[in-house]
Amino acid sequence: MDRALADCVRAAADPDGFLCPQRPDRTVPRLREALVKPLLSVQQLSKSYGALKVTNDISFDIAEGELFAIIGPNGAGKTTLIHQLSGMLSADSGQILFNGVDVTQQSMPDRVKAGLARSFQITSILPRFTALENVATAIQARRHSSFRFFDRVANDEGLNEPARAILNEVGLDGRHHVPADSLSHGEKRQLEVAIALATQPKLLLLDEPLAGTSHDESRNITNLLRALKGRITIALIEHDMEAVFALADRVGVLVYGRMIAAGAPADIRANAEVRAAYLGEETHA
Ligand SMILES: Nc1ncnc2c1ncn2[C@@H]1O[C@H](COP(=O)(O)OP(=O)(O)OP(=O)(O)O)[C@@H](O)[C@H]1O
């Protein structure tokens, strides 16, 4: 290995030092890839419904600390892919490695225990429970490996204290004692993220967290994702391109079940196939 390359290897281990002015060539990203072990590695994942290949031979990696966004037109297979990653839906073929372990056959609860959490669009919320009780219940479930839905947790400071911290983190300070069904749509989306955070995930799977939110709510949730970014690895499905390109470290593009491109936002914007298949459509919408 030449001297400049050796310097790059050292610099690559230092998150602040990885600029490597000596060798601004393609060797450097490859070195970085070799050094940074992916937290999630998806290999040739597929799922069909009859003749329809909904996820078709999909492969990609997500590195620890990365925010990887998955975009694609309606019906491209994004939700199906998230279902497969979370364990809600089995794979016809392919492999999912999480933190170096093959989780392809693991149940959803086992994946959650391993640190792979998904925010479950509103349906995971207990509507009559307050925001605080919802998060405290999720913490209780993590600690006891089961949901005790009817066992209210109101007086348990051991649960309430971390629950309050999580609610404040997602921007729901001042809303702790509001019943979940009285929260606004955007606040419910924030609560979903809080419930997922209560499982202490290493990887957070988010399915359209901005869907149906107002302009202000969307800004709040975008700020929340920006604050979580780097601390927790995130796989984000989102139709809001402004948010995706502002937040993502890398973007994967699904079209008809195939990941046609994955790369840095600027590369994805410039990719002719992506523009034709997807982003071009947007500009004409
Ligand atoms: N259970 C199912 N049985 C049959 N077809 C299905 C099933 N689930 C999804 N599909 C089909 O698979 C395709 C991909 O659906 P999916 O919901 O994963 O797409 P998506 O990219 O998330 O779309 P959107 O952006 O509209 O949410 C669609 O054509 C859908 O009709």
From TrEMBL:
InterPro entries registered for this protein in UniProt: AAA+_ATPase, ABC_AA/LPS_Transport, ABC_transporter-like_ATP-bd, BCA_ABC_TP_C, P-loop_NTPase
What keyword terms does UniProt attach to this protein? ATP-binding, Nucleotide-binding, Transport
Domain of life, per the record? Bacteria
Q: Which CDD domains match?
A: ABC_Mj1267_LivG_branched
Q: Pfam families this protein is in?
A: ABC_tran, BCA_ABC_TP_C
Q: Which residues form the ABC transporter domain?
A: 40-281
This entry's Gene Ontology molecular function terms read: ATP binding; ATP hydrolysis activity
Q: Does the keyword Transmembrane helix apply?
A: no
| PROSITE patterns cross-referenced by the UniProt entry | ABC_TRANSPORTER_2 (PS50893)
Any GO CC annotation of this UniProt entry: plasma membrane
Q: Per its database record, what is this protein's job?
A: Involved in beta-(1-->2)glucan export. Transmembrane domains (TMD) form a pore in the inner membrane and the ATP-binding domain (NBD) is responsible for energy generation.
Query: This chain belongs to which protein, by name?
Result: ABC transporter ATP-binding protein
Q: Which organism is it from?
A: Undibacter mobilis
